[in-house]
Protein 1
Amino acid sequence: MPSFLIPSIDTRYGDYNGTKTNSDYFWFYLKQIYDWRQKNGLDSNFKKIDHITIQVDTGKRLEAAYEFLTMQGYEFLMSLESENYIKTILHFKRDTQVPEIIIREPKKPKQNDIFWFMNQTAPNRKNSHARYIGETILVENIEEVYQVLKSAGKHFLTEQILGSEQEGQKYIETHPSSYTQNTVKYIQYFGKRNLKRQSLDKIFEENKETLEKFEKIKQDQKDAGIYELMRPLDHIATRVMQQDRENAILEILTLEPYYPWGAYNIEEQNSSTNPCRNIFKIPERYSPAKVFTAANSAHFLNFLEDIYNTTDNYAYNFGRSLHHLAFECPDDGKGTLSIDKIVEYIAQKNPKMVGKLFGNREDGIRQIFIQRSEIFGFATEYVQRFDGYHGFFTRENVASLTGALADSEKRIS
Ligand SMILES: [Fe+2]
């Protein structure tokens, strides 16, 4: 970066909020990335998040699906089988524009697999295949997206785009990021979406007992009056190492239609939280926010700090990876705590996983972290915004929330 250039904050997609700024390096390259994205047509080619993919250990897929369906308002759509995976697709039946959730298990666990390898470098994930894989972005023209990204030096898991127009879809997936260890997949559909998907993978028939269990989980939610309160994915929160904060954000902006919405410094937890939102200003339920959390100082300096550094410890012990998925809870404008009803229900089903609620109507937002799932390896957040509040947290909330998981984030072995 030429040192005579003093970067200003480029707000072409929206204002920058919060209490933590970035280096000149960040602001300089942010503008360059925006220009590059627009010049090469990426902004108009990218649409929204189509689905997210989560991997669990072999033999754990159904248990994972039961847990997810119990805790969320999604429903079973279908299961598919490819050469290497069995995948269960969950959709938000009340609004099918909401990104789907794919839970996959490797058919034969391979130990030369890149995702396995990444877990081995994280002490608390050793010997597991379970991890968040990444988002899939719906695009208008995948050949063009691929050419632009390839020319920009991006690496992909395959030599070329997979699928074909006849098969109903074409897709390609990036190599995992060295900052987040997640991939980004791009997909273009031809014709009707779900039906066409079947021509690439075989349908995996679930047995009667499984289908009945899926049904029963939904019926229980309806009987408890909780089903209607359970809403779609709101944000995807990734923890990165302290030294990677700016590059992790800049990198995702080269891969997805997002802009940095702001950054909040949380000194009492030695961290900052950095939400990025979609550039199209569509509601989060259709293209969830991407939130990056990073420590302010490195974990090896902990002995010099008074504050327990939960963020960098997490990124070190669990690896750079997804920290939580957050789901919205409805607000009726009268201050009714819909989030409390959901949490009460989860507490009946799985008392071990429940945490503490923070925030209230006056704060604009009320939130909770449900303890990290042993099957998925990440936590769940519920968030209720009151009276049209737009943020992701209050400063006090995020400090308490970050602290709420501190004990579960220490090194296991
Ligand atoms: Fe969150």
Protein 2
Amino acid sequence: MSKPSTVVLAMSGGLDSTCLLHNFLVRGFDVIPVNFQYGSKHNAWEGVAFQRVYKHYKDHPLLGEQIQTNLPIQIVLDAAFRYTESNLMKTGGEIPEGHYEAENMKLTVVPGRNTIFASILASIAESRGYSYIGLGVHRGDHAIYPDCRQEYVEALAKTINLSTDGKVDVAAPFIGTDKGGLLKRTLEMDQHGPCPVHLTRTCYKDQKNSCGKCGSCTERLEAFEFAGMADPIEYDNDIN
Ligand SMILES: [Zn+2]
């Protein structure tokens, strides 16, 4: 029997997964956050953001005890993706700029990524008696990422449930909303303090400041505009 209100969470250190962590903690879940280092251009920067967000919550007087590890869990998967070709990877071409819907943004797809991540999360969850794996996928990802679509999440949930003999389910609470919607909803959940969006990292490029031009930055800036808040992170050329 798995423990109720427990989740092993995929956490990049980006906006969506940080909002997801915030949602689970505020709702009283015990959480194991897991960061995957898989060889993408922005992975090292995401990893730094993940550590910052982890520390914020671990030190939180009300929510800290719900994080169930003493050290942030980072899993290195470079070898598993060594032969995968994508512009998102260090070995790939340039990161395209513009909206996610644009045809060239498909160059940033990393085939199989969420399926591989989910399998590892499920292994951790089942072995430790955790009830859920948590994914921050949302409706806005659907246009180009097949492993972020509703049908995929439903099929994945069935697979994870079968493979763990009914012990683990998939929680993807943002699947019906877009990035702006999930951000707005999370900013309103401030009864234990605000979600630390200023610590997150979204840009796909391998550089300190976010570029403000890649698909990921573009969508993030639109989400903050929708939520009625200025994005507090630093961008190149003060784009914000
Ligand atoms: Zn960017």
